[in-house]
Write a structure and sequence with these properties.
Blueprint (H helix, E strand, L loop, with lengths): L3 E4 L7 H12 L4 E4 L4 E6 L3 H11 L8 E3 L15 H10 L4 E6 L6 H4 L4 E5 L4 H10 L3 E2 L14 H8 L5 E4 L10 E4 L6 E4 L5 H8 L3 E2 L1 H4 L22 E6 L2 H17 L4 E5 L11 E4 L6 H17 L4 E5 L7 H11 L4 E3 H6 L5 E6 L5 H10 L8 E6 L10 H8 L22 E5 L2 H10 L8 E4 H4 L17 H29 L5
Parallel strand pairs: 1-8, 2-8, 4-6, 5-9, 10-11, 12-15, 12-16, 13-14, 13-15, 17-18, 17-19, 19-20
Antiparallel strand pairs: 2-3, 3-7, 4-7, 5-6, 9-10
The structure holds adenosine monophosphate and magnesium ion (MG).
Amino acid sequence: METIIKKIDRNKIDEDVIEEAGYILHEGGLVAFPTETVYGLGANALDEYAAGRTYAAKGRPSDNPLIVHISHFGALERIVKEIPEKAVKLADRFWPGPLTMIFEKNELVPYGTTGGLDTVAVRMPSDIIAQKLITSAGGYVSAPSANTSGRPSPTTAQHVMDDLAGKIDMVVDAGSVDIGVESTIVDMTEEPPMILRPGAVTKEMLEEVIGEVAVDRAAILEDSKRAPKAPGMKYRHYAPKAQLILVQGEEKEVVRAIRQLTGAKEKKGFKTGIITTSETANAYPFGILKNVGTKKNESSIAKNLYRVLREFDEEDVQYIYCESFAREGIGEAVMNRLVKAAGHRIVRAKQITDLQSYMRILFVSDSGNCRGPMAAAQLKKKELLRAYDIDSRGMIVLFPEPANQKAEAVSMSHKITLQDFVAKPFTEEDLDGDTLVLTMEESQKEKLKSDYADLEAVSDIRTLGEYIGETGENAQVKSAYGQPLAKYGEVFEQLDVMTDKLVEKLNKEAKEYDSDWM
Ligand code: AMP
Ligand code: MG
């Protein structure tokens, strides 16, 4: 079948297009059209056969009920058993708009439309084109999102065509939708009424009108394994082709974690994408970035979310890391959709930044020609599961000095040579998300932290002792400068024990880090 595309101007609606589309619907055909939330795939809701075609075109499981769209309140009483008082109040306040209510259905509504349920979901969209079309089609239009089941919902006519071209009769194209995520669904057959899917109409907004409203926990919790009450919510929804991973936590921590995750993946040869916001778009050195909006305005994120997910399908990326957003206003709906798109793959940023996967290990001492190079040389000889760039730097290096002679002598006696070593000064370039900076003493750590305070978000500066969990006397590696050779020997031994522990810790992390998506 060839799918006709009809452009329509919201400000100058061509009634002929409405009439033609209405006729197709009336006759049992399928027409995709804009609503204020997302594009819907319309069919005559009271025609069981038409509803069946919707499922086929979308590849939608047939137990996933459709929402019936109406264009005036009077249409409601013809298809439901009763209209609870609270529903009248909610309709009064939020219809037309992004709110779907569930009622006991009557015999006029076929089971093909409700997925076999005795209840029916009803919504009155505010989009003027949608309203006119519903009226023209006879008053009852079932309209699930006009995407292939499992793909992100369509927010433009092009998205609809990408998924459904050749499978439906017509697309009415009126440009981008306004809200960008699907309607709030409230089950009015429950007391108190229960939110089954969060949307632009929030719990607070509902409660202002009718008092207490419950929330189906399965609809909002990221770790819920319970079957949600809206049948459609149990399917992996809104999913992009690449693996999406949602990174939660404080913004600073999230940025660090995503830098690490993308860095690690890119170094392994994978392509990565990042869903960023205007606030953080400049913070990432790796990956293909797509800006979804601004954290200052959750609506901007809702509006762009599905477009960005779809755009990533055109990119050659295997992993998409996404920042998390405040669950305020429509943010709750955004997070709900993201959790689903991620197939519940959610990481806490802190967990990642604690479980560092470094590319580079840098030992830092004062003059940079004794403790640092000894530790680096020792570590290089040990059995590490991963390849690291291991090096050392000094805090005060005025010229490229060779290794301290006593340090070299002690090292030689352990078959380690520092012969070609020249000390290098620590610089700003040594701080990035991939480098673990390990100082010998607390004082050096404090100095680096204050000298490079503005780079704190991307650097990890610890003392060697602290990093391996050493406390007390053993935590500091004191300089042997000016003391007899034996003292240098002791420092070498101390570092040997410490670098053994370091190897243990790094290897343990390398193993944990090698899960498939982190
Ligand atoms: P969509 O049309 O793609 O926005 O999906 C409609 C959503 O509404 C799905 O998650 C359905 O499971 C849900 N839904 C529709 N009718 C009912 C109903 N009678 N009871 C519970 N959930 C419903
Ligand atoms: Mg849908």
